[in-house]
Amino acid sequence: MIAPARRQTKQRQIILDYLRSVCCHPTAEIIYKNVRKRLSSISLATVYRNLNLLVKEGEVLEIVDRDGQRHFDGDNQDHLHYLCEKCGAIFDSFQRTIFNKSLIKTIGTIRKINCLIIGDCLACQKKYGKR
């Protein structure tokens, strides 16, 4: 039996539009504050519910930072995320060279990449020194 198509609500579309319009990785609270500018009646619970659905359906990526806080990315194409342990910044990287042919031969085909790289960003290295 085929599952019924999910209805695209106005709230969900506005949340998705916002996420696709920014290059940062906002939390649900930041998304809520920005989406309320377009849809004043939306609640934080509605934002969370729709984000959970969008993540589950692969429309939005979720990144959990060093403090366990959830961040969201509207760019769902394959890419890596780099999380700085010192300042908490999250950067996108579209470089795929770490997924080479020898890796594919040892583990199998790759359909989707979801990778979080953790370290110290260049700005923090400059400020605090390399470790």
Structural summary, described in words:
It is a single chain. This protein is α+β, with helices and mostly antiparallel strands and 131 residues long. The protein has 2 domains: 1-76, Arc Repressor Mutant, subunit A, CATH 1.10.10; 77-131, Dna Ligase, domain 1 (2-Layer Sandwich), CATH 3.30.1490. Helices cover 36% and strands 18% of the residues. It has 5 helices and 5 strands. Strands 4-3-5 form a 3-stranded mixed beta sheet, with no helix packed on it. Strands 1-2 form a two-stranded antiparallel sheet. β1 (61-64) and β2 (70-73) form a beta hairpin. α1 (10-21) packs across α3 (44-56).
Topology (SSEs and partners):
Layout: H1 10-21, H2 28-35, H3 44-56, E1 61-64, E2 70-73, E3 79-84, E4 90-93, H4 101-107, E5 114-119, H5 122-128
Parallel strand pairs: 3-5
Antiparallel strand pairs: 1-2, 3-4
Helix pairs in contact: 1-2, 1-3, 2-3
Helix content: 25-40%
In the CATH hierarchy, what is the class of the largest domain? Mainly Alpha
Oligomer: single chain
Annotation field: number of helices: 5
CATH architecture annotation name of the largest domain: Orthogonal Bundle
By CATH, the topology of the largest domain is: Arc Repressor Mutant, subunit A
List low-confidence stretches: none
Global mean pLDDT = 85
In percent, how much strand structure appears in the residues?
Answer: 15-25%
The computed structural class is alpha+beta
Task: Identify the CATH homologous superfamily of the largest domain.
Answer: Winged helix-like DNA-binding domain superfamily/Winged helix DNA-binding domain
Distance between the termini: 55 Å
